[in-house]
User: Fold these one by one.
Assistant:
Number 1:
Amino acid sequence: MPREEEGVAIAAGLELAGARPVLIFQDNGIGNLLTSLLTLCQPYHLPLLAIVSRRGGLGEYNSMIHTISERTEALLDAAGVRWFQLDARTPDDRWAAEIERAWAFARATHRPVFVLVNLMGS
Amino acid sequence: MTAARLDRAQVLRFIDAAAPDSPVVLSLGGISREMLAVAGRKGNHFVSLDAMGQTISVALGLALGLEDSDPTGKVLAVEGDGSLLVGLSVLGTVGHLKPRRLVVYVLDNGVYLATGGQPTAAADIDLVTVATACNWRGARQVRTAEELAAATAWALETEGPVLVRVHVGTAQLAVPFFLEDPAILAEDFRRWLRSSMVTRDLHSVD
């Protein structure tokens, strides 16, 4: 997808058709998808799993990306989007099962669920 | 002298009659409320009330998700020019993924009608050329009822993705606001899909 909000809407159509869409993108694209998430997936009760790779924390090598990346949780909280963290505290061999659980939780609660994945360690 | 433009409601009535058994994704309040006025509440219509710019993307996801269920059937999107310009990137995505079932109507009135009729940039954009340049299988534009009928017959029998730009006027029907709970709209549409075609029914298991 060229833009995160477009991905949200494509995933919404796939979900309506009975598929199991998963969005994968980096956290600095959060701002691009809030409107379509809150005008489509949240009010229409469309479950959606988003896997969001984190930037802007310890180990960051870019001088500006933290400005939006470190606000990811706050933006999602303000938007009422349920999120879970997946980082070095979870053993590698549990990650696949945790992502399965997040998808099941999105289905069970009829809403988007985001998994914030930190590959930088913390 | 220029002929009178097609009315949007007239075009919507025609599209509904031409595709009574196909999924149709309707864009935003104006188009959705007028379709409700001329066609009533239809199981095959998915009403996307506020996700501006995302109508074609929703239909793209549907067309991809239904690819194996009924390869000859169509998935329609009814988009406006203002909304299209919010999410123009999807034209590239569609041309890249080439969903064979996708038929997109752009009802082009040239203005942002819901916010007071400010002009859009659509008047200066050749959408037929844009879609074709984005690798769509075909695109046409129409200005009259006869051209609309011919383009629709072509669109429904041609392998997608195809785009039909329909130049319409700015006349609007006097219609009431539509206040249905969106969660019910989504579930009604899912039920229609399940009852009308073979979908990967993942909603009833787990």
Note: The domain at 4-117 of chain A is CATH 3.40.50.970 (Rossmann fold).
Number 2:
Amino acid sequence: MGAFRRFASLFRARSIERDLEDEIRFHLEERARRNLVAEMDPAAAARRARDRFGSIDRAKRGMRAAHTPTAADAVMVAMSIGALVLATAMYWRAATHVYDLGPGVTPPVPLARLTPQYTMAARQAKIQGTVRVRCVVVKSGVCRDVTVIQSVDPSLGLDGAAVQALSAWRFKPARVEGKAVASRVFVDFAFALR
Amino acid sequence: MRQGKDKLQGTLEMLVLRVLASSGELHGCAISDRIADISADALRVEEGSLYPALHRMEEAGWVTSDWRASDNNRRARFYSITRRGRKRVDQVQRDWLAHVEAVTRVLKQA
């Protein structure tokens, strides 16, 4: 703790300087005042106060030195900052990592599904086939980054219908060691005319 | 030489902590007077050396300071002892008394 305070004192050098000036000035005036009570004349009282104080410069140097960070303080502060950055990076990575399904990952479970509807244009053009869509199911169970992986016909709206449908799905998120995690999910939407 | 200086500083710190432990909040001038009074002027510190010691002890967490108005209404820095400071002075005082006792024994019997 002391290391941090001494380090922080580098940024308030001016207020430290003002405080130590004030402190020394108060001391000399207070000492002179107490001398005066002992029936000295004011000039003599002030002179005696100065004599009893000794070197003002030495006192100031000593006071400044008390607040100056040492090499050990610098190492301590640098290491603490390093540890903090590392911990933040690790936390961030763990919090944002997207898992692919595989061993050790409990897959997400769809809770609400929406079936994509044929568009008028695709129906008229008699287009059929499967649109494969990928998304990231985040911890809250919603889909992000919904992308078409395998298209049927980009111009007549089936790709868009598939993306729109999956965007509306809600999942129970995937789990790793019991904790909800973000996972990558692939869904096939089959479009067939009856 | 260096060791002698450290010893002297340690003594000053011990006296200051002991005075603060018994007298509550004091500014530097009053601390100096208390030490001089109690020792019947035998221990009159060069007052300039008091302040670096106070600031070091504040950094060490043995005392805290607070700017307040003095009794004649001037802005002054008042020091008071912390719990760690009390522990520290008890320890240092025990060591000091043991040391003095040992030296005294030698002086009497040698």
Note: Strands of chain B lie at 26-27, 63-69, 75-81.
